[in-house]
Amino acid sequence: RNYKRQMRCRSDIDRLNGHFLAIFESLIPAEEEKAKQKQLLALLEKLIIKEWPKARLYLYGSCANSFGVSKSDVDLCLAIEEPDINKAEVILKLADILQSDNLQNVQALTRARVPIVKLKDPATGISCDICINNVLAVVNTRLLGDYARIDVRLRQLAYIVKHWAKSRGVNETYHGTLSSYAYVLMCIHFLQQRRPAILPCLQGMKATYSVTVDNIECAYFDQIEKLRDFGSHNRETIGQLVWGFFNYWAYCHDYTDSVISVRSGCIISKREKDWTRRVGNDRHLICIEDPFEVSHDLGRVVDKFSIRVLREEFERAAEIMQYDPNPCVKLFEPY
Ligand code: ATP
Ligand code: MG
Questions:
Q1: Can you tell me the distance from the alpha carbon of 297 to that of 305, in angstroms, rounded to the nearest whole number?
Q2: Does ligand 1 come within 6 angstroms of the Cβ of 140?
Q3: pTM of the shown model
Q4: Selected residue with higher pLDDT from 105 and 184
Q5: ipTM value of the model?
Q6: What is the CA(60)–ligand 1 centre distance, in A?
Q7: How high does pLDDT run on average in the chain?
Q8: Quick check: 78 and 132 in contact, CB under 8 A?
Q9: Buried b / exposed e across 136-172, counting CB within 10 Å, b at 16+?
Q10: Atom of ligand 1 nearest to the CA of 173
Q11: Which ligand has an atom closest to residue 61 CA?
Q12: Which residue lies with its CA nearest to atom 25 of ligand 1?
């Protein structure tokens, strides 16, 4: 009987597929927007090179890893290879240079956890944040982008999940919920543990790319063209995967003992990481290991209140996917 009910449910879920694909398509930025981002990057590069001839400007975050929805802010990293640079000083100088070139709302945030210059380009309307020497973020952006090229379902799932998280107010790290980066890692983990697997574990394979950043060795298999049919044994559609994702985080994940690890391609235990108790502000109530900075738990921002909010939202989403006649609307209803 259960079996029958599940079958019926599956075909129902398949019918949602077209709706989810349409939502995905509607979130993809237009080519025109991508071109404008490039144009802004070129302008900034020109201004920066005058002051720091050896510096390089990298695009990172969602504009560079193919998980960016339309109208996203642009994340940039200025890499300056000088010993002992004072980031706050560089931020102030950078703000000064950009200010005098007709850019709008240039703000230097020197006291933030990650000091940045914020600005808006009047010509394109694009907002951007520039940080200094955060090269690890450039490398993890590259890893996420490479995963996205293996199977299109990752990008589809991540867009839907990010859209859901933003609509439901659970994509706000300063309120104790998770970053977009954390949600994308949750999607990658989910597709790695699916049977048959939809994504491989790139860091568990022979490394074809390797860099050392801040004393951390970042290495993984990056010949993605050789992995193009990796997920082809699994025929699940995006409708089924959205259902499965929320079901996984609502009912299947062990929040007490488990750490999700994209680096290992599976779950590892909190004991193994010594993440079993609260240390300072790190409570480890939901554990998401950073793929390179492995001592870093992306769930550290989650506290005892926001963990309830998060888990209730996962359960709400799972219920909607299971029972609601119109899940594609209900899932994204503003909170
Ligand atoms: P959005 O479209 O919501 O702006 P995003 O992909 O730009 O999403 P963010 O969470 O804003 O994601 O993060 C931008 C980038 O900063 C990520 O791609 C990642 O490289 C880096 N990053 C963000 N949070 C962390 C973190 N806690 N630890 C390490 N790197 C991080
Ligand atoms: Mg961003």
A1: 18
A2: yes
A3: 0.95
A4: 184
A5: 0.96
A6: 8
A7: 93
A8: yes
A9: bbbbbbbbbbbbbebbebbbbbbbbbbbbbbebebbe
A10: 10
A11: 1
A12: 181
